[in-house]
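Sequence design from tokenized structure. All designs in this work follow the same two-part layout: the structure record, then the generated sequence. An example of the structure record is given first.
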């Protein structure tokens, strides 16, 4: 499942920016290179899935708006080869922070029924080693 598409990127950042970032032909073709965009979107999807994997069953049936927004911020950052503007870098770091919050459960996605059930345990269970000193073998010392 893809979280964002090329048309999403064009809508948010404009065709001119995508042409500047993806047209790597010599001489320049003056068009968006769909293969470069597809690679960035695939890398973005893999990165997002890495955060969601422990908390949600993948692939998601629908793409929440939040994930679409995060995917666009990450993909445009990945398309930059050299200098990244402060706005693009800030959006990227904010997206990663939000993904961290989703992975930890502090932010929950609006997707019903996809979070795996909990184990039902309510606390920590520890198994201790056998004790060397017990009340039985310390009789007379205590």
């Amino acid at each position: 499942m893809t979280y964002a598409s090329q048309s999403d990127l064009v809508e948010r950042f404009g065709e001119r920016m995508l042409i500047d970032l993806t047209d790597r032909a010599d001489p320049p073709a003056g068009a968006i290179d769909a293969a470069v965009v597809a690679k960035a979107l695939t890398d973005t999807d893999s990165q997002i899935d890495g955060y969601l994997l422990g908390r949600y069953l993948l692939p998601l049936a629908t793409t929440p708006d939040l994930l679409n927004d995060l995917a666009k911020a990450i993909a445009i950052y990945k398309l930059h080869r050299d200098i990244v503007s402060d706005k693009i870098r800030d959006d990227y770091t904010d997206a990663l922070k939000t993904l961290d919050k989703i992975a930890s459960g502090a932010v929950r996605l609006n997707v019903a029924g996809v979070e795996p059930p909990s184990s039902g345990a309510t606390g920590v269970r520890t198994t201790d080693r056998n004790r060397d000193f017990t009340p039985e073998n310390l009789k007379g010392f205590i």
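The mean pLDDT is 88. We note this feature because it recurs in several other targets discussed in the main text.
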